[in-house]
UniProtKB/TrEMBL annotation:
This is uroporphyrinogen-III C-methyltransferase. It comes from Govanella unica. GO terms for molecular function: uroporphyrin-III C-methyltransferase activity. The keyword S-adenosyl-L-methionine applies. Pathway: Porphyrin-containing compound metabolism; siroheme biosynthesis; precorrin-2 from uroporphyrinogen III: step 1/1; Cofactor biosynthesis; adenosylcobalamin biosynthesis; precorrin-2 from uroporphyrinogen III: step 1/1. One of its GO terms (biological process) is cobalamin biosynthetic process. InterPro entries: 4pyrrol_Mease (IPR000878), 4pyrrol_Methylase_sf (IPR035996), 4pyrrole_Mease_sub1 (IPR014777), 4pyrrole_Mease_sub2 (IPR014776), CobA/CysG_C (IPR006366), Siro_Cobalamin_biosynth (IPR050161), Uropor_MeTrfase_CS (IPR003043). Belongs to the precorrin methyltransferase family. Its EC number is 2.1.1.107.
Length: 285
């Protein structure tokens, strides 16, 4: 199939021209969460340079003649350097190939897409950025946890649990963030979860505050474990939560009892209409 195939809703979408690089988000894992722009790129690319979080079901959507080049970074394992990846993108483009750089989630949300785009600018390579559904939004939705809800929170903070130096990010004041009281969604949460929790507690967050760990979000292997801030470190180890995993901290986690559509569909979970008891409070007024 081609981008002009009448069976696909791609006829009026842009062409991936030779010598161009498209930096695309593949979403959190479920192939159904791809955007049409990214699917369009997969159907046209000569080379697909993909990350570790891009699953085989998504790669099967590439055109059969496409070269698939792995460029994944996984902690503690041999990985190509960022310079190697950027150099490969430039070299493919200069060779006249149509290049799709495929990254999990959104390429500009903890995805180094900005670094790669700047390398392309420096090399004079034209590019397009195709946003994707971030795991911080799509992964939460599949876990039955809204990022915001009028009953619990009007703000949410997304942060990385893994910094450029290998530890927690140095540019985040976790104590101040804890004191803000905002809902927290922590990407790459497991590597330094004990230190992360310690700093949040030191900042005044309650040990009883609801927490959820989401592993392999949106995939058939998805796991969601609910806990509290004081108990989550031990539970994560006991439950054997696998990476990639996110941690959600805040009262909004309690809404999962009503919104876990995925658990209801695949595990027969019974949903509760009013998990916060808000209706009872209204009736009492």
């Amino acid at each position: 199939m081609t981008a002009e195939d009448p069976e696909l809703p791609l006829a009026n979408l842009p062409r991936l021209e030779p010598g161009w690089v498209w930096l695309a988000g593949a979403g959190p894992g479920d192939p159904g969460l791809l955007t049409l722009h990214t699917l369009n790129g997969l159907r046209q690319a000569d080379v697909v340079v993909y990350d570790a979080l891009v699953g085989p079901e998504i790669l099967t959507l590439a055109r059969p003649q496409a070269q698939l080049q792995f460029a994944g970074k996984r902690g503690g394992k041999p990985s190509p350097t960022q310079r190697d990846i950027s150099t490969a993108l430039v070299e493919h483009a200069r060779a006249g190939r149509r290049v799709l750089r495929l990254k999990g989630g959104d390429p500009l949300v903890f995805g180094r897409g900005g670094e790669e785009a700047r390398a392309l600018v420096a090399a004079g390579v034209p590019f397009r950025i195709l946003p994707g559904i971030s795991a911080g939004v799509g992964g939460l939705a599949y876990a039955g946890i809204p990022a915001t809800d009028r009953q619990t929170n009007s703000a949410v903070t997304f942060l990385s649990g893994y910094g450029a130096g290998g530890g927690l990010p140095a540019d985040i004041d976790l104590v101040a963030l804890a004191q803000s009281g905002t809902t927290l969604v922590v990407f790459m949460a497991l590597s330094h979860i004990a230190e992360l929790v310690e700093r949040l507690l030191a900042g005044g967050r309650s040990a009883a505050e609801p927490v959820a760990l989401i592993s392999n979000a949106t995939l058939p292997t998805q796991r969601v474990v609910e806990s509290t801030l004081g108990a989550v470190v031990g539970l994560a180890a006991e439950a054997g939560i696998a990476t990639p995993a996110m941690m959600v901290v805040g009262e909004v986690v309690r809404l999962r009892a009503a919104l876990d559509w995925y658990g209801a569909l695949h595990e027969g979970r019974t949903l509760v209409a009013d998990p916060l008891g808000m209706q009872a409070r209204k009736d009492a007024i």
